[in-house]
Amino acid sequence: MNMISIDRRLASLGAAVVSMLGPIGADAQVKANAADAADLPIAFIWMTVANSADAIPGGDGRVFNSFNQPSVNGSGLVVLRGRSKGGGATSGGDSGQPLRGIYSRQMASTAGPLTLVFDTKTVVPGANNVQYQNSLGTLTEFPAFPRIGIDNATMVTRGQSKPVYEYQTGVDPVTGLPITTRIGTSGVYAMRLGERVAAMSQLGVVPGFEHYSVPGATPGIKFDQFPGAPAIAATNTVVFKGNYTDAVSKTGIFFRMFNPSGLPSKTQVVAGSDTLIPGQGAGGTTRFGSTAPPSAVGSDVVFLGLDNEAAPTLGGIYRAPLATNPALRTLVSIGGQVPGESSGVGFTRLGEALSFDGRFVSFWGAWGSEVRTLTLICPTDGQAAVIDYCNLTYPNGYVVDVPVHQGFFVHDLKAGKTSPVVKTGGEYLDFMYWTFSGRPPGVGDSDSEDFEEPRWRSAAFAATYTTSGKAQVAFKGRKQTLIDGIYLTVAPASPAVYRTVIETTSGATLIDPAAPAEAAITTVGLERDGLRNGWLAIAASMLDPISGASWAGVYVTRTAK
Prior knowledge:
The protein is mainly β.
């Protein structure tokens, strides 16, 4: 009996949402890890947050077409980014363009309704005085996955828009008329206590909005962009990566408290291009040349900072309190000993996607000089303009070298120790995943000053939370069989016990009974805030290879008993 037939049979028994465990090894291994295995579920029971059959809240009759990786808080509140196909609008004079937005749903106890957080019809929160077709400027895109506080319901997203603020910069000496300019095409926006808030903005150059200026830079310097996904620390504190220009291009990790009913709070800097990299020894003068989007809990932030992103020789993963230019505590460093490897074997690369729950930090790392050469082929599914740009630029594919020796690790802030979670070799081949993304020239909103041409990007995905004094870790990996999946384990543990959460090629109804009966799972997605307090939230896409019917959704399961 094939896998899909098994799934259909499970569905007929009312158990289609139960994903059974993969092999856990010999009896000796299980006995040796009884305590760790006790912290892992025997089966995964899935609940659908949203799928291709769901009407988009406020979407004029559209349904979801695709999803990105979701985030979840410790109470089971899920926040996700979803998209419709073009056309399909039934009311309101809509242009028929694809609708993109951020949505949420409470999954604890009795699941609540899908709720709109932001979409491309939402007026940009905060200072906004520019009219477009008899309406104030709206958000046009959400370039990163949304995030949510670990122990609160504040949701935050990066958002793009047309310029939203017009102000006077001078007076024409000939005509005496005011000279004006428009600004503000990118920001960080939060949903807090039911209110949409501009948590961070590009308006730092505008008189009266100095609280958005780059701290420590020449007065009045604004941020150019907020790359990646910003994080929520406390209920009203956003922590983010910011890029800016102060004679030269610079970067850093910043934070800002926002309170719509109080006085504006100034933006503050944790570390950046003017910060000396710790651990250089006497006389060292190298400063951070690259930073990555941070993770934060409470009053603490963790982030990756390097001297050179492409070929790092200094830097690492750091923890700091949310304060102006605080002392940085080094957790893991480039060149630092790789746990479980021979003495003197150090990390050569560290991943930027850090998952942090207040005690454990999970991260990806690589070591050694051995590589595998891959030829990346342009995508066939997604935005047509991006696909066309890829095929035009890389008609024969794009060649990359992938480190052979790589893995996931956790650092315990309480014990001050780094432990391995999983490494390549044996069952696993790779933990790096590649996407081709960006905005092709001449495509999109010509009024926007923010532009980055499409390129190939790599990422590794893991999420963690503390249970019974250890780290429960979910990670995405590729096996030697070229099957991708999401797997669950506990660290530190030796030997480790791994559970298969979900894998590609499995029947779609294993995770979603509403999916096409003969469809198989083709992709799975996990992000750094996808595992919290025993809630695991993922995205998945499915396809029926015969009929061509596709399906997608966001799903949650429990990893705690």
